[in-house]
Write a structure and sequence with these properties.
Distance between the termini: 33 Å
Shape: globular
Strand content: 25-35%
Number of helices: 14
Low-confidence stretches: none
Mean pLDDT: 96
Largest sheet: 10 strands, mixed
Structural class: alpha+beta
């Protein structure tokens, strides 16, 4: 057992990730012995706003919908084996998520765990209204605010772990902070030990997207082949006292950890390699070194850190109307021509409601534009298997619903041979981001009683 190495496994990289990923990671952590933590990263920018909507409908909801499926298979073993769990599964309702974790522990037949709830990220209330108004402008007065959350750092997570928490549930925190928190708590680094915090931050960055670093997002058949992708292993970071780390994965799982997969993930969503901004530190990977040190073992070193910024990023989500979407298929001779004609019919029928997005899936969709210029400039290729997808955004629900009715009417109103209609209607959200002075946002924790 190595007490000088902290192992942090990642079992989810987004809301909706695989629910059977955690078990092999927990097996590996328990087999290795020593201090360990398991993180679940389940919160994207829009996920939190959707969680706020869910909480409005039911005050007991608003947390990660797959919480039960993610935690039930491993919660008992983690608690009994001393593997601490840290997750942003709390989303818009961390306390409700914590209560659900306690219930799952009871169902697992283990003693009630010490569960900490991290709060302070929600800045949508009256206390922050003036500050938000100053940075967001009149949008705050003219639009319906759904949520406003600041990106907290690792300090409250670390404090909760030092206080004895076995499970830490947060709302909005920066993704790498889920790993920085356990590292801060375990090694006792000072809050301004920028180099070590930056190294732990980049370890967290390598973990935060789950299987991406294990070859998941890397795989490209014939160019970058990855074996065993159906059972890809989720990553584990072995962090030393200086913050440097080795990235690995559970033995016997699919995928691979190589210099190439690590370098791809290291640069993922990094705008400036010399200044990767997080609430905890400004990380600098300009002189980082990535080295293969064994099969499925890659060491990251050379990361430097600089003082954190004086502000915290805030994402504010607003109601923005309705989005109607529909699809219909055409097959056989002149299928593409009939799909194009169907799009023209819909544009004429819905004229005045706003731009109608039309894509020919399999012919012209990913590279298309909302105005349809690219599709119009692309000659008919004679495709015989085409699915037309159309979309319309409108402030009024009734207006958006017209698209779905008109699409369904194509069954008999033509063109010929349309089938397999599917429609959907949902409310939409828009996001504005701003920076608030750090001193206006106070992240803290409470232990669930």
């Amino acid at each position: 057992m190595d007490e000088h190495t902290l192992r942090i496994g990642c079992a989810a990289g987004f809301s909706g990730d695989r629910t059977d990923a955690a078990a092999p990671v927990v097996d590996a952590l328990l087999a290795a012995g020593g201090p360990a933590a398991l993180i679940f990263e389940t919160l994207a920018e829009r996920t939190l706003a959707l969680a706020q909507i869910a909480r409005r409908a039911d005050p007991d909801r608003g947390y990660e919908p797959l919480l039960d499926e993610l935690l039930r298979p491993i919660l008992g073993r983690c608690l009994q084996g001393g593997v601490r769990i840290v997750s942003n599964m709390g989303a818009a309702n961390p306390r409700a998520a914590a209560l659900r974790v306690r219930e799952l522990a009871r169902e697992a037949g283990v003693a009630a765990p010490r569960i900490a709830v991290v709060t302070g990220d929600d800045v949508s209330g009256a206390a922050h209204r003036a500050a938000l108004r100053e940075c967001l402008g009149e949008a705050l007065d003219t639009r319906v605010l759904v949520s406003a959350n600041a990106y907290l750092g690792a300090e409250a997570i670390a404090a909760a772990l030092r206080a004895g928490a076995q499970v830490v549930i947060t709302g909005r925190v920066a993704d790498p902070s889920l790993a920085v928190g356990p590292a801060l708590a375990h090694f006792g680094w000072a809050h301004d030990d920028w180099d070590r915090i930056a190294r732990a931050t980049m370890a967290g960055h390598l973990l935060e997207c789950g299987a991406q670093v294990s070859g998941g997002y890397f795989a490209d058949p014939g160019v970058k082949d990855v074996a065993g992708l159906a059972h890809v292993g989720y990553p584990i970071a072995e962090i030393d006292a200086d913050g440097d780390c080795v990235i690995t994965k559970p033995a016997g799982t699919g995928g691979e950890i190589t210099e190439h997969t690590v370098k791809e993930q290291l640069l993922y969503e990094v705008h400036d390699p010399a200044a990767y901004l997080t609430p905890d530190v400004v990380a600098d990977i300009g002189l980082a070194q990535v080295e293969q040190v064994g099969p499925d073992r890659v060491r990251l070193g050379g990361v430097r850190g600089h003082a954190r910024t004086a502000t915290l990023k805030v994402n504010a989500c607003f109601e923005s109307g309705w989005l109607a979407e529909g699809e219909i298929s055409y097959a056989g001779p002149r299928a593409e021509a009939r799909a194009r004609l169907a799009a023209e019919v819909l544009r004429e029928r819905l004229a005045g409601l706003g731009p109608l997005r039309a894509d020919l899936i399999g012919v012209a969709s990913i590279f298309g534009d909302d105005a349809g210029r690219w599709l119009a400039a692309t000659p008919d290729s004679g495709a015989r298997d085409v699915r037309l997808r159309v979309a319309l955004r409108h402030a009024e629900r009734a207006a958006a619903e017209r698209l779905n009715r008109e699409l369904t009417a194509l069954y008999t109103c033509g063109p010929a041979g349309g089938g397999g209609v599917r429609t959907a209607l949902r409310p939409t959200l828009s996001t504005l981001s701003c920076l608030l002075p750090r001193e206006l946002v106070r992240g803290t924790f409470e232990m669930l009683q």
